[in-house]
């Protein structure tokens, strides 16, 4: 899927190289991480990866990155800009990404989420991800275990 327009004129589409600066800026604000632009660019350009954004008339308001490898994919990040949360944007964005995964033959999506991130755990459960394990000490700053979740497609 190249482009999907919501009723509120939010466009969900494949991430473009021209989006990377804004996406990385959003990632810094939300996750406090500083990804390397060149690495992000290479990953974005790989045809098997699902990198998508939700954009309103002027700004990227959400993004989702999924790295696919044959029948399995890893949901790396999904983020929604403050002020646009609780508007079902993450649900719509992830749903589109899941459709893209199905289109390229992915059979399951895996993710890790902080054990103490209750809103995210509820969101993924709503999206039919199931808890399949724990990774002790997966997150370092601050320290936390990760819940491993899986969605079969």
Q: Your description of this structure?
A:
By secondary structure, this protein is an alpha+beta fold. It has two domains: 3-106, Gcn5-related N-acetyltransferase (GNAT) (Aminopeptidase); 111-153, no CATH class. The protein has four helices and eight strands; from the N terminus they run E-E-H-H-E-E-E-H-E-H-E-E. It has helices spanning 20-31, 37-45, 89-103, 118-126, and strands at residues 3-5, 11-14, 50-55, 60-69, 72-80, 108-114, 130-140, 143-152. An eight-stranded mixed sheet has the order 1-2-3-4-5-6-8-7, with helices on both faces. The protein is globular and about 40 Å long. The chain starts with a strand and ends with a strand. The model has no long low-confidence stretch (mean pLDDT 91).
Q: Any low-confidence stretches, pLDDT <50, length ≥5?
A: none
What proportion strand? 35-45%
CATH architecture call of the largest domain: 3-Layer(aba) Sandwich
Report the radius of gyration as a whole number of Å.
15 Å
Structural class, by secondary structure, is alpha+beta
What strand order characterises the main sheet? 1-2-3-4-5-6-8-7
How many domain modules?
Answer: 2
- H/E order of the elements? EEHHEEEHEHEE
The CATH homology group name of the largest domain: Gcn5-related N-acetyltransferase (GNAT)
Give helix % range: 25-40%
Distance between the termini: 17 Å
- Predict the CATH topology of the largest domain: Aminopeptidase
The level 1 CATH classification of the largest domain is Alpha Beta
Q: How would a crystallographer describe the biggest sheet? A: 8 strands, mixed
The count of helical stretches stands at 4
Mean pLDDT metric = 91
Number of separate strands: 8
